[in-house]
Amino acid sequence: MAPLAALQATFLSALLFLGTDCGKALSEPSQLAPESLKVSINTSQQSLHVQWTVHGLAYDEELNMVFQIQISRMTTFNVIWVENYSTTVAWKQVLHWRWDSELPLECTTHFVRLRGMVVEEAGTPGPRPWSNWTSWEEVDAQKSLGPDWLFVFPEEKLVEEGSNVTICYVSRSHENNVSCSLESAPILGEQLSPNVSVITLNNVSFIRKTGTNFFCQMEQTHTVKGSVLFVSKVLEEPKGLSCETRDFKTLTCTWDPGTDTDLPNYRSQHYMLFEAFSGENKSCEHKDSCVWQVAPGSQETYNFTLVAENFFRKRSVNIAFDLAHRVRPMDPFSMSLKSVSATGATVTWKVHPVRDHFTHLCQVELHGEGKVIQHNVSVEKDGQRPFSELEPAMEYTARARCAAAEHFWKWSGWTGQDFRTLAAAPSEAPDVWRDVKSVLGSCNVTLFWKPLSKSHAHGEILFYNVAVESLHGPSGSKLFSIPAPAGGTEVALDGCSHRILVTANNSVGSSPAAMIVISGDPADKEAEEERVEPTEQGFSVSWKPPLEDVVGYVVDWCDRPEDAPCGLQWRRLGPNSTSAVIRSGAFRPGVRYHFRIYGISPQRRAFLLGKKTGYAQEEVPSDLPQVLVHNLTSHSFTLSWKDYATDSQPGFIRGYRVYLKSQAEQCQPEFQKTVLPDRSVGCQYEINDPEQKTLVMGDLQPESSYEFAVVPYTGAGEGALDAFTKVTMPDERSHVLIRIILPMVAGLVVIAILCYLKSRWMKEMCYPDIPDPYKSSVLSLLKPKEAAPLTIMSVNDCVPDALEVVKKPEGSKTPFPGARKAAPDTARIRPDYIYLLPTESSSGPCICFENLTYDQAAPNSGSCAHVLGPHEVPPSQLGLPTSAESLLKPLEQNYVNTPAEAPAGETTLNYVSQLASPVSGDKDLLPAKPPEPEPELCCEYRMQMALPLGLASPSLNESSNSSPTALLGQEYHG
Amino acid sequence: MDLRAGDSWGIIACLCTVLWHLPAVPALNRTGDPGPGPSIQKTYDLTRYLEHQLRTLAGTYLNYLGPPFNEPDFNPPRLGAETLPRATVNLEVWRSLNDKLRLTQNYEAYSHLLCHLRGLNRQAAAAELRRSLAHFCTSLQGLLGSIAGVMAALGYPLPQPLPGAEPAWAPGPAHSDFLQKMDDFWLLKELQTWLWRSAKDFNRLKKKMQPPAAAVTLHLEAHGF
Fold this sequence. Notes:
The complex is a heterodimer. Chain A is mainly beta.
């Protein structure tokens, strides 16, 4: 340890010696060392304010000194700034120095120290040494922060666009739980110390005038702190600085300031005007102009400097000029017109006085009908300029502006006045055309004329005079006056050869006459209408020059050919023309226009040269033809569309396309396979002749279905293929069948007619209502072998199966006598009713028609007489009177035998009726269990007999429950 | 219940008495003063209208301030806006408010908010925004007058005017620009909450001022009698 202690003692001794020596060497400058160093923070400017004094100066001594200032951040070793500050120092003077910090000063601690040195002057020997450093002065803004958890610095800052900005946040939380965002974008910082982070924003841009928001959030405490960066745009140099005077009293300087750099809370952009010769300056009220007062009669030349300034920049522009060369006179005034005639006028005006002997150069213009007449006039006080060769009755605008005549700078504004020249007689004849319709030797002429242009009308046209003179008849003319603004009139001519003169008249006079001659000759020979193709310019119409002399040509057409009136238009062409391009704004696509070309003879007679027709633009056909199918056979059919009007289509019909579809998708030889709009496959046949309107479709399959469509096409294409028509081919044998069936049907019809005509005979022959035993052939058929005469069959031939005697008491009479009561007819014996009775033996082949209406006129059979009395109406008749009555009438007429007709031996029995038809009654009246059907052989007349009453009673009782009478009674009462 | 003849006469006499006094019932007196009901209804309608109007205005103004103030989920702590009257209140406390206190709170709140809003109008740089704010201030002034009318109709005195005509709302050293924007944000938010609360307040008052249903029934019966 001893050697180490000795070494230590030696080192300390050396240090002490050196210190003493140095102290001696610096003892003199140390008297001028800085002292009383104080450092403060200006947070709004983010700057350190350093102040100190220099000790050791004599009372009246002033020295030039340089101070070296060091600034450290966080620790004294971390020197971030060294600057030499030179100044003159006086006795007891407090020196100040400012340092602007890029990093907000609140973010960390700063240290400042300095030393001084007297600057060597001329004649002073050698360099002076630096003084000692002052001790470090610490500045810690964080000490003054409040109790919050989070701070963001700077709180606000004004920066220029494109600059870099450093922001820091101070967190009092030990956890790193602070997130920061610039506007909406998260942004990460660089940790400066454990609780301080620094964020540097490079090249900041202007977003909005209310500033760019930067904010940080602490999660636990939900604290939000932020700052607003006010980004100012970069100040531009003023552009286009220009100064001028209008009256030699004030100078107005204007310029384009460029982008506005002001912000709502930071308004700093302003402009100053300096004049170098006078040394005066003026702060401008506006950002784009300044008014400078001209000193009267003194200064002629000016040298202006315009300085633009804001927080960050200062920019300037310079301009020098002679005042007399920057004169822009005031606008002229009191403009008026004098001596206005039909073709001339004089314009007068006044100018504002500028100063003595100042001459104005004035420009006077006259505008009318698209023309401009311009003159320059030198004016000292009042200006005047006559104008001639003007158009009569024309609106003109006169205007004038002035400038300095000697040193032209700029024109003043215009001052103007409108006026109108006086009217004159129209200078040209109206353009007249006609449409002639000849009717039986007379002509109806429709005259058309175009209104005269303003330049020819020379005033408002009031009326048109139309004079009509006959070419062949007695001299003399008819005059019509047509008030304007009519564009034509109709004239009926007696005979077609007339000359027509038309003049336009205004308030001053009449125009030259336009003459046309209407000829009685049929010179308008019918010319074939040729097609004309449109071009981009219009319809190009050409013609061959006629052999006759012509003075010109006229092409006319209708703008609205489908309307009446059709809007006749015409165009006149010179005698050397052989073509014309007709264009009109009224031409529409899909409308067919007709053009007629006339030559005009020297006698002003028009003769037709040719006709043209065309479409401005063809369109596809608007409607499809109605196609009919003819001659349908099993292998072919014919299509026909003869009613299709080709002329009324929106394009020239060039032909037709016939489409055919079939399930087989096989095309006939002359057809082409094609894909139809519905993407199905079909066959197409093209007809190139628009007048061919039929087509035979052959080689088709019997019993197949075909669909066809006929679509016309124009130059624009074919019409819409909307729907197909279906045709089903007939069977091959069907026509054979038809050949057989048709005659058969015809034959049947003939038979039916014959039957109808001979129905009565047929009825009597085949199915008489009541067979007449004397006439019935049935009986003869049944008994062919029996000998004639065929009379009433023998009772013995037919064995009765049943007898029915109906007993009707008085009380059971029907209550409808009033409705159905028949008038008593004692002269005639009337049948009461006939019952159809089944035979008892169901196996028997026959049924028997039993007539129970034989009046057995036994005086003692009072009950029977009562039952069978002629005045009683049976229930069946009550129920169905119509059928029963209709049934009874022929019986009465035909088959009621009078007693005189009755054969001998049967006088006691009166034959009344023999009802043979089983359908004599209404079907509804049949019993629920109808009798079993009988074979045809049973349609026989079995018996007509009179039965003793005693024999009939049992049968009556038996059948009382099953007889139709009982059923009817039940049905009726029910 | 056994009713005797004497009881029937008593009931008829009672009904007659009721009918005799019907015109004196204020709720049924159709020809007299309609009371504060219509003016409360008008105030309620105006509140709803302002609520709608503020929705548009706040959107425009917060866009003018920029993000994060115009973001829907931005909900900063209520730091610098302590001078603003709070609209949020405990539900029980709100229910227990009497009519006078309820109207007074509304009146005072809008008086404060109107002053702050005028400060906002002065700061706005955009001319269109200034016009919208001025229009809204006029409407809010109308609402204040309407509340004053309701209070007068109910016989309540108006609260004392504010001690200072204008609040210290201008930006100064105490307020950084960011805090100023926060204050603007809270002003609009508080205004929105107040308008929502006022709608509830006036709706409650409106229902309270409606004539009782039983009296109306009785009135109709009397006509049909």
